[in-house]
Prior knowledge:
Layout: H1 7-12, H2 14-29, E1 31-32, H3 42-48, E2 59-60, E3 63-64, H4 70-87, E4 91-93, H5 99-110, E5 116-120, H6 136-139, E6 142-146, H7 157-167, E7 171-174, H8 185-195, E8 198-202, H9 207-212, E9 224-228, E10 239-243, H10 248-259, H11 265-277, H12 281-303, E11 307-308, E12 317-321, H13 329-338, E13 341-342, E14 344-346, E15 360-364, H14 366-370, H15 375-390, H16 395-411
Parallel strand pairs: 1-13, 5-6, 5-7, 7-8, 8-9
Antiparallel strand pairs: 2-3, 4-10, 9-10, 11-12, 12-15, 14-15
Helix pairs in contact: 3-11, 4-11, 5-10, 7-8, 12-15, 15-16
The chain binds D-serine.
D-serine binds at residues 36, 99, 127, 177, 204.
Amino acid sequence: MERMNNEDIKKADAEVWDWINKEQIREQETINLIASENFASLPVLAAQGSVLTNKYAEGYSFARYYGGCQFIDRIEKIAIERTKELFNCEHANVQPHSGSQANMSVYFAYLKVGDTILGMDLRAGGHLTHGSPVSFSGKFYKAYSYGVDPKNEMIDFNIVEDLAKKYRPKLIVCGYSAYSRQVDFKAFSEIASKVGAYLLADIAHIAGFVAAGLHPSPHPFTDFTTTTTHKTLRGPRGGIVMCRKKFAKKIDSTVFPGIQGGPLMHVIAAKAIALKLASTNEFKDYQKKVLSNAKLMASLLEKLGYRIVSRGTDTHIVLVDLQPQGINGKEAEEILKKVNICVNKNTIPFDPLPANLTSGIRLGTPSVTTQGMGEKEIGLIVSFIHSALTNRSDDKKLASIREEVKNLCRQFPPY
Ligand code: DSN
């Protein structure tokens, strides 16, 4: 691989350069199975390192509070148009710095402090911003949560409807961080309209599939749809909020000046590039492979005796319950780190352990698929995982697996 080697950083700050370089090597030599990460494309990286980082552009295209925005304006407009086309939505705001801020803009625009929301429990697969008591979403609002059916670990819409009727939320949130099954936006919208609630879909994890037509679209079913751009979508770190036209003005004024100042124009340019790339057939093929790799990973792990939550996946996420193996998620994350496989510990539905230990790990296939890995490599990765967890006390064995992992990574450089 041709390593990125930025002489300018090195000259200006050898100390920071050294850490950047170490991170670069770590990324090259690690099998990354963090489901929310990906390798951004080179044009996306380049746009983020461009001169656009110099520009203040508070406001929106053609209505800014700063001069000199004539070129920036075009870029933001392109990003908005591409979002609308790719996701078939009525309005888009591409300024949120993150998924959390995209969600915050919806809450702040349409809820009053103390209003009721209904989202998925973080421990069952939801996100912090869907009503967790440690997040603004659980502190400012009266948050109730739904989980999954204990029998099949999938969403039970009868329960969601019962909860909605009981608590009469003003906003229902769907879309998840650690739930690997398709989201039925239509079923959610029917419940939301029965109780007069707004519906927000947070498609941060599945945006790439939605863009590629491999997951049902949230549109026209939702009032608001938020996403990040750096997961399956393979863009820069950041957020986008989409909504019906009638909500556009309030959402825009909540993003800026409500909760943010100047937009990150270098990131918005990178979002525009990623959205263009996401509209290609090549991207569609990539998403198909992300999906088939995840399905294969789940079935191979199952054959080796691992319990896959909900017995499979419809997405890039494979949630593994490690209770039968007698290890917790934290231990597994640490063992796999020793062999250069990066995963995150994750609660499983009805987890008896706290979030800092957990009974499971969450695996994801976006990064390895970006590297070009396919069936054969997924087979190898599963065998490395199994061998590392089985031989966890054998340092010699772990060292030899680490060499095999590095060797595999060398064959699939991300850049
Ligand atoms: N923290 C992200 C994840 O890992 O799923 C969600 O924002």
